[in-house]
Amino acid sequence: MNKKIDSAANYLDQTDDLILEAPKFYSLKDLEAADMDQLRIEFMRISPSFSYLNDQVSQSEQELFDGFKSLYIRNLETIKQRSLVNPKSKKLSKEDEKHIEAVFAKMLNTHAEYGDIHRRYFDWYADKGRYIFDNWTNREDVKFLGTSNHPGISNLSDPKVMSEALQYIKMIANNQAWPKTVLIAVPTSLPKRIAIEHTTFLIQMHYDMILKVQGAEYRRRKLLAVKRERPDALVKKLKLLICKAFYPKRTLWQLGEMVEFSSSYRDKKLDQTKDKPNVALMKSELAAHVNRAIRAAQYIAEHASIDNFPVQSKVITPYYDWDDIKAKILRAHPNLSI
Q1: 3-state secondary structure at position 141
Q2: Measured between alpha carbons, how far is 165 from 150 in angstroms, rounded to an integer?
Q3: Do 229 and 109 fall within a single domain?
Q4: Exposed, middle or buried, 249 (CB in 10 Å: 0-12/13-18/19+)?
Q5: Within 259-320, where are the H helices?
Q6: CB 177 within 8 A of CB 208
Q7: At what angle do helices 322-332 and 36-46 cross, to 10 degrees?
Q8: Which of 135, 207, 270, 310 has its CA 20 to 30 A from that of 221?
Q9: Last residue of a domain, one of 210, 243, 271
Q10: Helix (H), strand (E) at residue 223
Q11: Which residues contact 279 (CB under 8 A, 6 or more apart)?
């Protein structure tokens, strides 16, 4: 696997400007560099239910829900095949409809937090993701603005230094997402011991009495639903969904070959001995593995859309319009070629 990128935050500075060019995804191989945060978004993007909410936000909530539910009704035959409803059912049960209502409510909250993810990943990250995931861009720290009457480069009488200080003050004053910030001036005519005592007293007063800060945490991590991270396995499943979107008519074993899904299949295919396994049987076995993996990948996508990642427990799924999914993928990764 390729070396993982730590976070999209590596390509941002604190003024939202790109300091490095964000990587582009040209091939399936490039997706192996995605970290767990990006994989969450990639699966979420493929979910038809989340895409539907994103595309139909102008509707009333009842209209929105009716269209949302229709995605599952349209997929009833597939849901039956997966033994998630009674195979003789001609419609979803009341229990299933209650489940869809609960998913709808959770997904509305997820969409409110994540916003429009159907754009270039790093554009979305600069706008939204940096405040959601655990990275240095959402860990605000004490900031030094400058020093008055000092000949060095931090002299506040320097127009550039003063401009940067004013820009920062305006930013924290007008940015509703920024936390309450205390500005303190420390005259160096005070002995250091007294300056530290007075500064500490002011901070304690504002934390405990004036602003009444509670539950402050340095790290703001979006937790995973599992303890063990397995990005390699997730990437394989993600690749299958992407290949399915680009080539929906390919057979399952062909999709498996495209993503090099099974090393044992590859080894058997390369086997030149006279005991080489039957090709038809090999393809059948690979197809069975790929079928299970695509099914699990769809479960992961739907769980991700209610902010539960990475989970692949069985759940009824909506109808997957692969042409629409392909368009969503290319909107985020216009350079991707399969």
Answers
A1: coil
A2: 15
A3: yes
A4: exposed
A5: 263-270, 279-304
A6: no
A7: 140
A8: 207
A9: 210
A10: none
A11: none
Residues 106 and 316: their CA atoms lie apart, in Å, by 15
Cα separation of 275 and 268, whole Å?
10
Same domain, 182 and 313: no
Structurally, how many domains does the chain consist of? 2
Q: 1-29, pLDDT tens digit by residue?
A: 445 556 788 777 645 454 567 778 899 99
The SS3 call for residue 12 is strand
Which H helix or E strand runs over 236?
helix 231-246
Peptide bond into 151 cis (omega under 30): no
Residue 258: domain span? 8-134+224-332
DSSP structural state of residue 249: T
- For residues 295 and 316, state if they share a domain: yes
Question: Which tens digit of pLDDT belongs to each residue from 37-93?
Answer: 999 999 999 999 999 988 876 778 888 999 999 999 999 999 999 988 888 888 888
